[in-house]
Design brief:
Blueprint lengths: L3 E4 L2 E3 L5 E7 L8 E7 L6 E7 L4 E3 L7 E6 L4 E6 L8 E9 L5 E4 L3 E5 L2
Parallel strand pairs: 2-11
Antiparallel strand pairs: 1-3, 3-8, 4-5, 4-9, 5-6, 7-8, 9-10, 9-11
Length: 118
């Protein structure tokens, strides 16, 4: 069973930065896509960013220009660098890995809390 472990969350002031990490128990090159999602209290989980095995990236409009997704294949880890954080970025951030196309399998981490507040 694939395990994804997020870390790096915490409390930060508006305008600050955080870097989230998602460590996978298996070679991340085996996943067609890895991504970050977030869920704020009382809201549905939403897409934040993704990175394909081919190196393509995509971002939600709300984070474009502020967040950057990257990976370190040697460490089987995907990162989310978050800059210029806003209070509305406050949420639990989840890492997701997708294996295969048809059929496909999605794996989720347990989440890490990010709170942006003064």
């Amino acid at each position: 069973q694939v395990q994804l472990v997020e870390s790096g969350g915490g409390l930060v002031q508006p305008g600050g930065s955080l870097r989230l990490s998602c460590a996978a128990s298996e070679n991340i090159l085996s996943f067609v896509v890895m991504g970050w999602y977030r869920q704020a209290p009382g809201k549905q989980r939403e897409f934040v960013a993704l990175l394909t095995s081919g190196g393509d990236t995509d971002y939600a409009d709300s984070v474009k220009g502020r967040f950057t997704i990257s990976n370190d294949n040697a460490k089987n880890t995907v990162y989310l660098q978050m800059n210029s954080l806003k209070p509305e970025d406050t949420a639990v951030y989840f890492c997701k890995a997708r294996r295969g196309v048809i059929p496909r399998y999605d794996y989720w981490g347990q989440g890490t809390q990010v709170t942006v507040s003064s």
